What we know:
By secondary structure, this protein is an alpha/beta fold. It has two domains: 3-127, 3-Layer(aba) Sandwich (Rossmann fold), CATH 3.40.50; 170-385, Hypothetical protein af1432 (Orthogonal Bundle), CATH 1.10.3210.10. Helices cover 55% and strands 6% of the residues. Strands 2-1-3-4-5 form a five-stranded parallel beta sheet, sandwiched between helices. β1, α1 and β2 (27-31) form a beta-alpha-beta unit. α6 crosses α14 (324-333). The longest helix is centred in the middle third of the chain and has 64 residues, at 106-169. It starts with a strand and ends in a 10-residue tail after the last helix. Fe (ii) ion binds next to loops.
Amino acid sequence: MNKILLVDDDHASVQATAALLEEEGYACISASGAEAALELAENQDITVVLSDVNMPGRDGFWLLEKFRETHPNAAFILMSAFNDTEAVVDSIRRGASDYLLKPAKVTSMIRAIERALAKRRIDLARQRYQWKLEHTVRERTHDLEAALRRIADAYEDTLLALVNALDAREHETAHHSQRVVRYTTEVAEAMGIKPPELDEIGRGALLHDIGKIGVSDAVLLKPDRLTASEWSEMREHPRIGYEMIRDIPFLAVPASIVLAHQERWDGPGYPRQLERQAIPIGARIFAVADALDAMTSDRPYRLGTSFPNAVAEICRCSGTQFDPEVVGALASVGEAPWLQIRDSMRPSDPLPLRLAPEAPVFSKLPPTVPVPLPEDLFTRMARAQLGLEKSPVPP
Length: 395
Ligand SMILES: [Fe+2]
C-alpha cells in the first residue's frame, strides 16, 4: 500500500487531511515539522511526502533536499499558503513532483498524489531498465575482455610452442628463449620502458631466431666450422624471421626486432649493417640480454660464467658491439634479479656436462672477480654463443 507522509505544523489540518486520504485508501503518517518528519521516515518505505513549506524550524525546502538523499524514490509535493511563482519553480528544480496552494482541496491533493505516483512508477521503471542495461553491458564487457584475454593467451602460447620447438631443434638449453625474454624486459624496464612497448620488446626477444626455421639442419646443426656459403645461409635467418611475421599486425614491432637482432652498435652486424640508433631499441636491448644469457648458461662443453663476469665482459664491449646506454642499464640492475630469473627457470632435467680439459670453469671463480682469460679465446667463445661463429671448443 502507498504510504503518505504528511508534514505540517497545523495539527488539526494534518489530522483532517489524513482522515480524508485514508478514506481514499492511502496509509498516512504525519509529523509537525521537517526534522521530526525526517526522523519518522527513517527506515520506512514512504511513497509520497505532502509537506508544508513554511514551518517553525527547518522549512519544506530543507526537508525536500534531505529526502532526496534518504528516500530518492519518494515523490515530494510541497504546499504553501503564498502564491509565490519563484518558490514553485525553485521547488520543481530541486526535485519536487508538484506544488499546491493552501488550503488545497482534497480532490486537488488526490490528483497531485496520483500524478506523483504515476511519475514515480515511470521513474522506477526507467531506473530498472537502466540498471538492467548497465548490468548487461557490464556482463558483456566482462565476457568480451575474458575472450580477448583468452585469445591473447592463445597467441602467446602458440608463439611459445613455436619457439620451444625451434630451441629443441637447435638443442638449445631449456628455457633459453624465455630467459632471454625476462633478461630483455628487465633491462628495458631499467631504461624506463613501460607497457605496451615493454611487451612488444619481450615478444621480439622471444621470436628473435624464428627465422632459423628456414636454415637447413646441415648448416644449423653442423658441428664444424661453417663454410662461407653456409655462413651466408645462416645469416639469412633474421630476414626469414622478419618475412614470416611482418604481416601479422600485432607483431609489427617484434618483427623489426627479429630483423635487427644480429646488428651491432658499431656497424658490422647483419643483415643491413645498421649502426647505433638506426638499430631499433628493442634489438639493442635484446643483443645485451642474449649475450648475458649466452655467457651465463652452461653448455655441454663448459659451465657458464658468473653474472658479474658476464656483465664485466659486456661492459668491455660497450660502444663497439653494444649500445652504451643499454649496457649502463644492464650494469645498474645488480646481480640479484638475474639470479632470481635464472633460478626460476632452471630446467628440471639439466643437460649433461662434458667438460673439455681446456674449457674454462667460470662458475668456480669468485663471483666478483673478472675472469683473466686469453682475450681471443673468450671473444671467440662469446661470438660462438651469439651465433656469429662456431665454438672454438669442440663439443
Ligand atoms: Fe640469431
